[in-house]
Amino acid sequence: MNNCPHCNANLIGEEIPKEQQRFFGTAHWHREIGIEYPEKYDGVWEYQCPDCGGTWPSEVAKLRGNYEKK
Q1: 3-state SS class at 23
Q2: Could you give the CA distance from residue 55 to residue 32 in angstroms, rounded to a whole number?
Q3: Rounded CA gap, 15 and 27, in Å?
Q4: The model's pTM
Q5: How far apart are CA 70 and CA 55, in angstroms?
Q6: Rounded to the nearest 5°, which phi and psi values hold at 44?
Q7: How would you write the pLDDT of the chain (70 residues) with one tens digit per residue?
Q8: Can you give the residue range of the structural domain that contains 32?
Q9: Domain count, the chain
Q10: Is residue 37 part of a domain?
Q11: Domain-embedded: residue 7
């Protein structure tokens, strides 16, 4: 996702140094914040916008079909 679904802020960050891009598989950092809830899933459950604080479910949360806000 390139924009926040709440405030439409651009979530594409600065360019990753060229010599490191091969490790990340992308050319730019992403600004969204990954939030984990260990009791639900061992990984990112939702993302948060650094600008407005809005949250949205990760793909895992959508696939499991039981996304709920904390």
Answers
A1: helix
A2: 9
A3: 6
A4: 0.82
A5: 10
A6: -70, 125
A7: 899 999 999 999 999 999 999 999 999 999 999 999 998 889 999 999 999 999 999 998 888 876 665 5
A8: 12-64
A9: 1
A10: yes
A11: no
